[in-house]
Design a protein that fits this description.
Elements: H1 60-72, E1 83-86, E2 100-102, H2 103-110, H3 118-135, E3 143-145, H4 148-154, H5 156-159, H6 167-174, H7 179-184, E4 187-194, E5 197-204, E6 209-214, H8 221-229, H9 232-246, E7 259-261, H10 273-283, E8 284-285, E9 290-291, H11 300-312, H12 324-327
Parallel strand pairs: 3-4, 6-7
Antiparallel strand pairs: 1-2, 4-5, 5-6, 8-9
Helix pairs in contact: 1-11, 3-10, 6-9
GO biological process, one term: proteolysis
Protein name: Ubiquitin-like protease family profile domain-containing protein
GO molecular function: peptidase activity
Length: 336
């Protein structure tokens, strides 16, 4: 049964490769929804099916204590040069996966009101990917989470004087994903950092539109559209072209798909966008177009602590065992 939503209009502009970036797009399709379609059968099951493994929420008290220990610098954690997080060699899927987080980096991202480093967003995505492979193997290819650094490549002109070079985007794919990973996915998720705020763009192949997951409590719809008009067309065009090049033209052309602002929890505390985006990467059910859990915007500090706890004690972290002050607060071992 179709669920009636607002119907999308399309851009009155032909796709002319990279030349479309010379002019500001009208973005007539920004913030409108398509009719929700009956989903096509997927090779992989959705990770949100009822029988799938769900990551239990970390113990709130332990997670908060771990964050407090690191931030306050208790015992051996007092050293700014103490490394606490890095991806094990066997779990790296890219030459770029050298996330090596020292205490100072964690403090700069996980203290309240601090903006999140992109390396932590990518590390979190690596943890999710590993969980899909190990604990949800029948769903391991349903979603593909692209690195946040890819959005920096797409928005290159925003930060540096110069011209976007399409082949630079392909490096992010060739090192991380097999072509089959891309072709069989139903959700392609891209974390985007722009003007100090994190959002997630989701190429939703179930409903054939691009979902925008934005936790910012914009005062007006106009301000939200102005923010995304600045970047949405470039992301759509350049990501579409990159996926086409990488898959030799086999990936679905989404260059004319509309953008939809999906209702999501709005952050209540400053600079929580990166952590809300991580929650969206994990919990966005693109088939139903909603989160699979409730996210309380007032618990931003708790969300930061729980995400840090999850990443520190994940199996991909080669820095285990951690200093005793932290390690003894680890979750119980998982059953074999």
């Amino acid at each position: 049964m179709e669920v009636p939503l607002r119907r999308s209009t399309r851009l009155n502009k032909d796709d002319k490769g990279e030349a479309e970036h010379d002019a500001q797009p009208e973005m007539l399709d920004l913030g409108v929804d398509l009719i929700m379609r009956a989903p096509k059968r997927s090779r992989f099951l959705s990770p949100f099916e009822s029988q799938m493994f769900r990551r239990p929420s970390p113990d709130i008290e332990k997670a908060t204590t771990v964050r407090d220990i690191i931030v306050s610098g208790v015992g051996t954690c007092r050293l700014q040069t103490r490394r606490l997080m890095a991806v094990k060699e066997e779990f790296r899927c890219s030459q770029f996966d050298f996330c090596s987080a020292f205490r100072s980096h964690i403090c700069d991202s996980f203290q309240d009101a601090k903006d999140c480093y992109s390396t932590f967003v990518d590390y979190f995505a690596q943890c999710l990917r590993r969980d899909d492979i190990d604990k949800r193997p029948t769903a391991a290819g349903y979603r593909v989470i692209l690195p946040g650094s890819l959005s920096d490549t797409f928005l290159f002109e925003q930060y540096k004087a110069g011209k976007y070079v399409p082949r630079t985007a392909l490096i992010h794919f060739s090192d991380r994903f097999d072509k089959k990973d891309i072709l069989h996915a139903k959700l392609i998720l891209l974390p985007v950092h722009h003007k100090g705020h994190w959002t997630v763009y989701c190429v939703n192949l179930v409903h054939e539109q691009i979902d925008i997951l934005d936790s910012s409590p914009w005062p007006t719809e106009k301000q939200q559209k102005e923010y995304h008009t600045d970047i949405a067309e470039r992301i759509r065009s350049r990501l579409n072209n990159a996926l086409h090049q990488y898959t030799h033209g086999k990936f679905t052309d989404f260059s004319k798909w509309g953008f939809a602002f999906v209702p999501v929890p709005k952050q209540a505390l400053p600079n929580d966008g990166g952590f809300f985006s991580m929650m969206f990467l994990e919990h966005y059910d693109g088939k139903k177009r909603k989160m699979d859990i409730n996210i309380d915007p007032l618990l931003g500090s708790q969300i930061r602590a729980q995400i840090l706890y999850y990443m520190l004690f994940h199996k991909i972290n080669r820095e285990r065992p951690l200093p005793h002050e932290i390690e003894h607060l680890a979750p119980p071992p998982e059953p074999p």
